[in-house]
Amino acid sequence: MKGKTITTENKGAESFEEHWLTIQPRLFDFLEDEVGELDEEQKLFVRVAESLDLRQIEARHGWCGNGRKPSSRLAIFKLLLMKHVWNWPETKDALGEVRRSPALRRLCGWESVSDIPSGPTVSRAFADFALDKTAEDLLARFAGKIFRGRVVLHRSIDSTEIDARERPATKDEKAEAAKDAAIRAQVEANAGDLNALSLQKGRDAETNLSLLPALCDWGCKRNSKGKTQFWRGYKLHIAVADGDIPIAACLTSASVHDSRAAIPLMQKADEAALSLYDLGDAAYDAGEIRDFSEANGHVPIIDSNPRRGGAKPDCRGERFVRIIPAEKVRFRNRSGVERVNGHLHDAHGGRTVRVRGHEKVFFHLMLGLLVIAVEQAAAAMLC
Fold first, then answer.
1. For the purposes of burial, counting CB atoms within 10 Å of the CB of 269, is it exposed (0-12), middle (13-18) or buried (19 or more)?
2. Residue 276 parent element (H or E)
3. What are phi and psi of 279, to 5 degrees?
4. Phi, psi angle pair for 338, to nearest 5°
5. CA–CA dist 55, 118 (Å, integer)
6. Contact present, 353 and 163 (Cβ < 8 Å)
7. How far apart are CA 239 and CA 241, in angstroms?
8. Would you say residue 15 has pLDDT above 80?
9. 366 with 135: CB under 8 angstroms?
10. Most buried residue among 13, 207, 234, 259 by CB atoms closer than 10 A?
């Protein structure tokens, strides 16, 4: 996926560009003296590892001094990032490649083959990272760093299907999970629709996200060719800034409508970067979403969804949209989120989900979004 020039309200990226062009050869020359010549994918991995603030991993998961010293969680996290840079389907594939390549092994932080942990050890560390929401925090920190002092013009939101290899939840399991979520969020469980848009506007992002259904089930969506497709698994909702840079994401059950995750996703994105225009397709055509966007100082540009009694197609079969000509030009920037969805599926793990459970699946996908965020920010000379 080719990067696009990011649109911001200042030109701070120009001075950074000169700085990056100076430091990049020095960094790569130093590493090549240590591990040998780096190819393009290895350079991408180095850029990802250097751009993210990985110090919190050692702070959260480092050895506390009691008991046997565990395998380096920082090195394991780098291994998981490496898996998504190369788009290896399974963790055992990544371990095999690292054992065969001294350069990859040393880039992760292991000096010898004996230092590389076993598959079960990596799986346990993966579960710890997933429960600790490590990848979410890294993406929020990274977005806050590169957009500090900048105003993003266009923020696009959309969802994509995620196939999972697990049993879909039953009706009773969904009801029980919704009741438990309401209790944890201290919300009245018998209040009707817990995720009504009118109720979401008065809650914070953490409460709204905790109430969204998160169990595996069946989803239905009309694709770009107008055909209805079904899948079993989850739905990933992404907010993307100019330059095709992901800034926020959340994972829900596949049956959750896009509009139900819009307000929580916009709340998370607001914490990462200041933006002006909210772009969305017809799935987000709801008065509550438009009101929430305007209340937060944004301009919503959302395609209209003709409903019963609403706008009808014209004589040429085209829909009437409530978008003025100038906003139609801005609406074209919404294609960025579709490119991110496709890039995630094609090159960074979106189609190779081998784990089960909401937390693990979300962590797997967030690793891919981290790689895309750094890759696109580097193309825009923001990191």
1. buried
2. strand 274-280
3. -110, 135
4. -70, -35
5. 23
6. yes
7. 7
8. no
9. yes
10. 234
Tokens at 154, concatenated = 């266009």
Q: Give the separation between CA 228 and CA 161, rounded to whole angstroms.
A: 12
How many other CB atoms are found less than 10 A from the CB of residue 123? 15
- Provide the 3-class DSSP secondary structure of residue 370: helix
Place of tokens 């609403």: 310
d(CA 359, CA 248): 16
Distance CA 374, CA 378 (A): 6
Q: How far apart are CA 235 and CA 231, in angstroms?
A: 10
Q: Which two tokens stand for residue 298?
A: 């944004």
Burial class (CB within 10 angstroms; exposed 0-12, middle 13-18, buried 19+) of 241: buried
At 22, which helix (H) or strand (E)?
A: helix 12-35
Q: What is the pLDDT of residues 251-282, one digit of tens each?
A: 999 999 999 999 999 999 999 999 999 999 98
Could you tell me if residue 234 is left (phi over 0), alpha (psi between -120 and 50 degrees) or otherwise beta?
Answer: beta
Q: What are phi and psi of 186, to 5 degrees?
A: 60, 45
Q: CA–CA separation, 305 vs 283, rounded Å?
A: 7
Q: Per the structure block, which two tokens stand in for 183?
A: 């209790």
- DSSP-assigned letter for residue 172: H
The answer to whether 179 and 153 are in contact (CB under 8 A) is no
* pLDDT tens digits for range 293-327: 999 999 999 988 877 555 555 444 455 555 677 88
* Amino acid identity, position 334: R
Task: Report in angstroms the alpha-carbon separations of 116 from 56, 62, 99, 108, 377.
Answer: 21, 16, 8, 10, 31
Residue extents of the structural domains in the chain: 39-62+69-132, 135-357
Q: What share of the chain is helix, strand, coil (3-state, %, to 5)?
A: 50, 15, 35
How is residue 169 annotated by DSSP?
P
- Count Cα atoms within 13 angstroms, Cβ side, for 146: 31
